Every structure is written in C-alpha cells, then in structure tokens.
Prior knowledge:
This protein has 12 helices and 15 strands. The protein is an alpha/beta fold. The protein has 2 domains: 3-108, Beta-Lactamase (2-Layer Sandwich), CATH 3.30.450.90; 117-368, Rossmann fold. The strands form 2 sheets. The chain has a 9-stranded mixed β-sheet with strand order 9-8-10-11-7-12-13-14-15, with helices on both faces. Strands 3-2-1-6-5-4 form a 6-stranded antiparallel β-sheet, covered by helices on one side.
Amino acid sequence: MSHESVFEASVGYFLSPLRPYLQDDTVSEIMVNGHSEVYIERRGRLEKTDARFPSHDALLSAVHNVAQYVGREIDADRPILDARLPDGSRVHVVLPPSARRGIYFTIRKFARDIFGLDDLIRLGSLSPSGKEFLEIAVRLKKNIVVAGGTGTGKTSLLNAVSTAIPEEERIVVIEDSSELRLAQPHTLYLEAQQADAYGRGSVTIRDLFKASLRMRPDRIIVGEVRSGEALDMIQSMLSGHAGSLTTVHATTPRDALTRLETLSLMSEVELPVYVARAQVSSAIHLIVQLARYSEDGSRKVTRITEALGMDAANQYQLRDLFVSHIQGRLPNGRLVADLQPTGERPTFADEVREYGLERFVNASAAVWRE
Length: 370
C-alpha cells in the first residue's frame, strides 16, 4: 500500500461525517463551524446540514491528520493551516481561541475534471466571443489578471484560461496550496511550505517565484498574489517573461491594479508609490473581472478590460473590451447574462495578423477589425 493511499484512507476515516458531501459533485464547498455545525455550498447557495463530528477532539484529530498529510503543523503557536486533501481539495483551518466558536474547518472541493472555457459557456459564465478573445490573448502572451471577490471562481477561471496555452510550452505553476491542474504535459508545480516549530524549512511564494525564473519557463502561473511576491511577478513580466497568469482579490478592474500596486509595496524593496504604479500599469495587459450573483448563486465574467498605462495625472487608464449585461431569467430562476464586445479595439489588435493568428478569429472578429 502506497504512502498516498494510506493517507487517503486515514483522512477519509477522520472526515467520515463529511463523506456524503465530499462525494457529491454538486457541492463546491464544505464549511465546519465547530464540531456540531456544518454548512455546504451547492450551486452557489449555502445550505445547513445535519452532519456533525462526535466531539471537538474528533474534529481536532481530523485537522491533525490533514496537517500530517501535507507535512505541516498546527497548534496553539500556529493556529492557522492551509493544506489540501489527497484528492487536491483545498483546506483552511483556524483553531481556538482565534476561532471563537470552535475549530473552523473549510474545504474548497477539487474539480475532478479539468475545467475548460467551453464549460464556462455552458454554465452561462462566458460568451463564445469572450472565450475566443481570451484564447487569442493567451496565444499573444498577454499578461492576464483574473479578479474577483471571495468565492467568485477565480481559480476555476484561471485554470480554464490556461487551457489555451500551447502544449509545447514549459509552464511553471506556483501556489500557496496546490489547486490548479493544467492539461499541458510539460507543467511543473511548486507549492509553498510553512516553517516548522523551530522556524526552519519555510519556502514562500517569493522564494518559489525567484526559483522559477531559473527553470527556463515559457509561462509562469501564480495561483494568487497576496503579498510582496507581486513585485517579483510584475518585474518578471517587464523583463521578458510574458504571458503570465494570476488571480487577485478585487471587485473592479481598477481595484485589481491598485491591489497589485499595494502588494508590490509590501515587498522588502523600498519603492516609491509612483514607481510601483508605473510598473503595474506597464506589466498588466488584461483584467478579467468575475462576480457572484446572490440572486441565484451564479458566477459570471462581468468585464474583460484592457489596461492602457497611466494618464497625465498618474492614474490608471482602462478600457472595457467586453461588458456583461443581465438579459433576464430562465424558468429555473438562473440569471441570463450576455458578455459582448463594447466596440472598443484593443491596442494589440494588429498583433493577430503580425503573428499569423487570423485562423483563430471567428466569433470575436468584431473586436479585432479596424
């Protein structure tokens, strides 16, 4: 019996109260608020369940088992854990007293199938013209940021956009806790590591990013930028590593650029604000904005926006290339949105012809033409 299968069996045992929801493909998230309260998210909506752990200690044992699987520790000195289950699902844990109602244990489930852009069209999250535009932008090696609030599906969209990367490229994926699963065969996955009880063995996203630059990548994908690694990513984009993809927490395209600017200032490098802003405005080409609609729980691309540098007042200039409009509802209550071109032409439109990509233009022809 392999090491992996042993842990899979043990984790499955300790998480047995959650097994029905771990096996239910309609459930996307499981939220344990103390040992006696479990919520799930199904199709974008929260539901309270009857599931519960026998005791606080039973839930704590499950937490320690997951931590052991990923080689990390969680205790009173380190009460927060980011980890994953054997199937790749993301786990986040907070222990008391920081968690006032008991142990908070959240599972973001791992999609077994690789999520593609066609799936987003089927779910009504993206239009055919928007899909084709993103595919061409990826082939043109544009630096793309997927922005959205918590639970909007940023990681899923990032994974879907990555399917447009040509198979012959060498891709390095950097994450705090591994979630992405790319279809391309030449993909290397790097995962950050927490320090042990003596402060040893820490490997940060910044460390991994610097290491990735020496691995001859054609593309670098950062699951999410949260801190000073934003500066390393921005500077690598400017120094020849084009075609990078990442996600950031932001509710508008402008906020996404401001967030990257702020994170860049959190690095160890002393950087004037205007320099950080200038670098962000030069490095990022497109922002894909996501939103989650509370009316039906659906997640949709609301905008695809081009960053145009800075104006005379040193403010970000942006141009919406696609905007989504709600058209109505289906009989089942689901919102219908239509993501369509605004009529604006991207500044890099001529590159389609320069790089011989006209054969890929069909549904998005209105975006590229003069």
